[in-house]
DNA sequence: CATGATTGCTGACTTTAGTCAGGTATCGCC
DNA sequence: GGCGATACCTGACTAAAGTCAGCAATCATG
C-alpha cells in the first residue's frame, strides 16, 4: 500500500464526494422525501418496470411499493400492468410527473454548470478531461475477476459475444457451437469471467492436458471496457492459475486478424512458437513460461 | 451552457459520487448509527470544540448534543469545559474512542487502496493525477468573488496577509498601516474579496478619481489557491466594475519583485505606461482600456 | 451586579428509511 | 385444472434522523 497515493484518494473522496455528492442529492431535494424523488427520477420519461426499479435502486419490494403509492397519490405516477405478463407492472410518469422530471433535469444541468461556470475555458477542458479519466479508471478498478462454471449465464453471455465477434472479424467467418466446448472445469481446465456491476465484460479459459503446456482459450473483453487493462488482468490471472496448477508453460493460438490480442501477448512476454495444433483458424502460436509465478 | 461538457459533469457526479460516496460512508458503518460514527471521526485524535463540530457537520445543536451523550454513554468520548470560556465545551476521545478512530482510519485506507489495487502501476499514476486535477479545479470553482466593506473581518485578513507578503518580498521592506487605507467604498472606490468555504483567499480594490482612470489596488491571492486563476478572475471583475462605474481605462502600479503579478497584467492585456504617481515602491505602471466591458 | 447575548443541554415531538411476515393475482407447466 | 414459482401489495413494526421550544450556565459590559 502506497501512503502517498492512498492519501490522494482519501483526500479526493473526502472533498469531491462531500461537495459534489451533497450537491448531487440536493438537486433532487424538493418538498418530498429524497427516496420519492430518486424513484421519480429513475422512472424517467420512458417509464420503467417495477422490478427494474427495484434492482436499480436496490430497494425492498414492500418499501418500493409504498413509495410508488405515495407518488401515485401525489398524481405524479401511474402504475399499470404491462402488455405481456400480467404480474409485471410498469410505472409511468403522468403529465405532472413529466413536468417534475424536467424540472429535476434542469436543476441537474444547472448544478453541473455551476461547477464549470467560474472556470476559464482552458480550465473547463482540463476539468472535463480529468473527470473522464477518473471515471474510466474507477470503472476499470471495479472490474472483478473470478472463476465461474462455463455453463453459467455470465459465461454463456461472454462466449456468445466472443464467437459473434470472431465470426465478424475472421475473413473466413467462424462457426462453432459453444456447447461443443469441452468442460472447462477443474481438473481439466477452468473458466474466468470479468464482471463489472453484475455485467459480464470479459472471459478467459485454461485447458490442462497431462504432459503438455496449459492452453489459454477464449480470451475476450467486451468493447465497453476495452482499453482499461481488463484483457491484461485476465491473462495474468490465467497465467497465475496455470502456474498454481503445476504448469511450467502456457501456450495459445490466435487468428491473424486479432491484432490487439497479438500485441497484448507480445507485450506480456509471450514469444511466437511453431504450430502445435491443427486449428484451421489459427495463424500464430505463442508460449510463455509461467513456472514460479505467484 | 455547453451541453457536452455538462453531460460529462453529470455523468461524473452520478457514477463517481454514487460509488465513491457510498464507499466513503460505508467505511464509517459499524454497529452504531452513521451520525455517531461521523461525529466520532470528526472529533479526531486532537479533540474538537462542540461549536466547531456543529458547523463542520452542519447539525442542529440539540441533535449534536444528543449524539455526544450517546458516544459518552458508549465510553468513547468525554466532553469537558475548555480552559478559557466556561460555556465552550470540548469533546475528546477516550482511550477506547481513540482505538475506534484508528480502526476507522485503517478502514478508510483500505477503501482507498481497494480503488487502486486492481490497476496497473501506470493506471494508478494516471488516476492519482486526474483525481488531483479534479479536486484542484473543483476547489477553484468554489471560489466566489463579491464586494465587501474594507473594514470587514475577511477584508482585514486579506490586507494583513497582503501587506505581510509585500514586506517580505520587497527588497526595501514595506511599511504601511492598513488603517491608513482611504475608504474603498462607493462612490470613491470598492473592495472585492474572493472566498473559499468561508475562508478569504484573495482580494482586490478599485479607487475612482474624477477625471482620471480608475486605479486598481491591493490585488492579492492567498498562496493556498495560487495557480487556480483566482487572480485573473479578480482582475477581470475589477475591470468590469470599473467599466460599469463609467471608467474608460484602469491603471495600476506594481513593484518589480512581483513577477507573477506583472505577468498576469501583461497577459490580461495591460500595457506599460509612464510613471503616473510618486509611489516610492513602484517600478512599473500599467493601463488597460475597459470601456464597453460587460 | 444587573442585563442581554452566547453556548450548550433536555424533553417532546415528526418524518423518513427500512424490514419482515403474510397475502393475492398471475404465469408456466405438467 | 392443480401446483409451484413469480411479481407485487399490505399491515405492522423499528430505528435513525432531524426539528423545535424552552432552560440553565456562563460571559462581556456598562
UniProtKB/TrEMBL annotation, chains A, B:
The keyword Acyltransferase applies. GO terms for molecular function: acyltransferase activity, transferring groups other than amino-acyl groups; DNA-binding transcription factor activity. Keywords: Acyltransferase, Transferase. It comes from the Bacteria. Gene3D superfamilies: 3.40.630.30, Winged helix-like DNA-binding domain superfamily/Winged helix DNA-binding domain. InterPro entries: Acyl_CoA_acyltransferase, Bact_Acetyltransf, GNAT_dom, HTH_MarR-typ, WH-like_DNA-bd_sf, WH_DNA-bd_sf. PROSITE patterns: GNAT. Pfam families: Acetyltransf_1, MarR_2. PANTHER family: AMINOALKYLPHOSPHONATE N-ACETYLTRANSFERASE-RELATED (PTHR43877:SF2), AMINOALKYLPHOSPHONATE N-ACETYLTRANSFERASE-RELATED-RELATED (PTHR43877). This is MarR family transcriptional regulator.
Amino acid at each position: 500500500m502506497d501512503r502517498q497515493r492512498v492519501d490522494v484518494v482519501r483526500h479526493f473522496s473526502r472533498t469531491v464526494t462531500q461537495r459534489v455528492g451533497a450537491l448531487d442529492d440536493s438537486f433532487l431535494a424538493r418538498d418530498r422525501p429524497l427516496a420519492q424523488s430518486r424513484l421519480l427520477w429513475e422512472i424517467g420519461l420512458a417509464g420503467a418496470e417495477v422490478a427494474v426499479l427495484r434492482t436499480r435502486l436496490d430497494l425492498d419490494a414492500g418499501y418500493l411499493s409504498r413509495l410508488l403509492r405515495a407518488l401515485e397519490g401525489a398524481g405524479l405516477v401511474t402504475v399499470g400492468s404491462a402488455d405481456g405478463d400480467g404480474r409485471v407492472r410498469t410505472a409511468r410518469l403522468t403529465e405532472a410527473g413529466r413536468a417534475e422530471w424536467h424540472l429535476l433535469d434542469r436543476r441537474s444541468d444547472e448544478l453541473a454548470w455551476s461547477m464549470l461556470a467560474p472556470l476559464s475555458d482552458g480550465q473547463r477542458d482540463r476539468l472535463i478531461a480529468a473527470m473522464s479519466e477518473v471515471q474510466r479508471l474507477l470503472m476499470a478498478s471495479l472490474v472483478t475477476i473470478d472463476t465461474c462454471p462455463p455453463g453459467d449465464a455470465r459465461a454463456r453471455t461472454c462466449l456468445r459475444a466472443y464467437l459473434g465477434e470472431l465470426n465478424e472479424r475472421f475473413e473466413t467467418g467462424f462457426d462453432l457451437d459453444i456447447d461443443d466446448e469441452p468442460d472447462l472445469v477443474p481438473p481439466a481446465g477452468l473458466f474466468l469471467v470479468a464482471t463489472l456491476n453484475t455485467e459480464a465484460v470479459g472471459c478467459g479459459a485454461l485447458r490442462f492436458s497431462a504432459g503438455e503446456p496449459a492452453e489459454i482459450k477464449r480470451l475476450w473483453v467486451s468493447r465497453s471496457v476495452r482499453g482499461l487493462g481488463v484483457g491484461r488482468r485476465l491473462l495474468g490471472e490465467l497465467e497465475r492459475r496455470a502456474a498454481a496448477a503445476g504448469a511450467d508453460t502456457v501456450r495459445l493460438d490466435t487468428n491473424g486478424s486479432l491484432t490487439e490480442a497479438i500485441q497484448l501477448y507480445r507485450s506480456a512476454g509471450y514469444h511466437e512458437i511453431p504450430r502445435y495444433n491443427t486449428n484451421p483458424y489459427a495463424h500464430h502460436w505463442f508460449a510463455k513460461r509461467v513456472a514460479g509465478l505467484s
